[in-house]
Amino acid sequence: MKLLSSDLLAMKGATPISMLTAYTCPVARCVETAGVAVILVGDTVGMVEMGFESTRDVTMEHIEYHVGAVRRGAPNTHIIGDLPYQADKDPDTALVNANRLIAAGADSVKLEGAKVDVIRHLVSHGIPVVGHTGLTPQTAKSFKKVGNTSSEAEKVKQEARKIQQAGAFMLVLEHIPHALAGQITQELLIPTIGIGAGSECDGQVLVINDALGLGVDWPPFSKQFVHISETITKVARDYREEVEGKAFPRNLSQLIGAQGS
Ligand code: KIV
Q1: Domain count, the chain
Q2: pTM to 2 decimal places
Q3: Looking at the structure, do residues 151 and 168 belong to the same domain, yes or no?
Q4: Residues 40 and 163 in one domain
Q5: In this structure, which residue's CA is closest to atom 2 in ligand 1?
């Protein structure tokens, strides 16, 4: 059953929330089959799938395309569509773009930073909003942990409070000290979803390519549950060798013949 924003809100402090990113239909199908609570169609797609250096290169059209593909693979899962860089630059622009993502298949939208006016505007038009603070890659100068100094930590806390007050129903905390994430999680009434923010958050999000070990390097706070890049390389090499040695498709027809089909 698809979780609504109110269901996710009610999970705070009761049931840890699992969230994975997905960008394609077959991967979304697997994520839904596995029972993951929420899929984030994040603008990380630009870096992990499209080869861009930054999420700033991602456009509305990219996210719409991926939200549509993910929705077709995961019809019964709550999908968050990420508003790309500048798509939320003012309340009216954000509303137009949020509605585009909802029309493409998203249940809610996520945006980076304490953009209070934007969040209020979207929520007042019935769009469920997920906030995002700590490391916010669209505007960050580096991918370093945020909140190590007391002034930085206070800024992250203030942003978290403002995002909640503006009406967001959930908050992503990215790459901040674990103790700080714990304090924010204790204080807020909305669920916090951590990525590189420790285990005290109400849920966790991981970029699917990082979890799959698909790529060449991964953030230090991510976990590779497998190393799919190695499997893909092996399949491609085996295939090339079989084609060059004239084994494929001959061995395929032998196999089909042996199976009697
Ligand atoms: O775009 C994304 O995938 C994200 C996660 C890293 C939280 O924002």
Answers
A1: 2
A2: 0.96
A3: yes
A4: yes
A5: 42
Average pLDDT, the chain: 96
Do residues 109 and 235 both lie within one domain?
A: no
CA of 112 to the centre of ligand 1 (A): 10
Q: Which domain holds residue 193?
A: 5-226
Q: Catalogue the active-site residues.
A: 174
- Say whether both 221 and 237 belong to one domain: no
CA 28 to CA 42: how far, in whole Å? 13
Q: Which residues, in sequence order, are CB contacts of 229 under 8 Å at separation 6+?
A: 213, 214, 215, 216
pLDDT at residue 75 in the model: 98
Query: Helix crossing, 25-33 with 60-73: angle to 10°?
Result: 50
**CB 22 less than 6 A from any atom of ligand 1:** no
Residues 68 and 164 in one domain: yes
Say if residue 15 is in the same domain as residue 102: yes
Q: Tell whether the model's pLDDT for residue 82 goes beyond 90.
A: yes
Smallest Cα–Cα separation from 160: which of 130, 137, 195? 130
**Residue-level pLDDT at 260:** 57
SS3 253: helix
Question: Is residue 258 predicted with pLDDT exceeding 70?
Answer: no
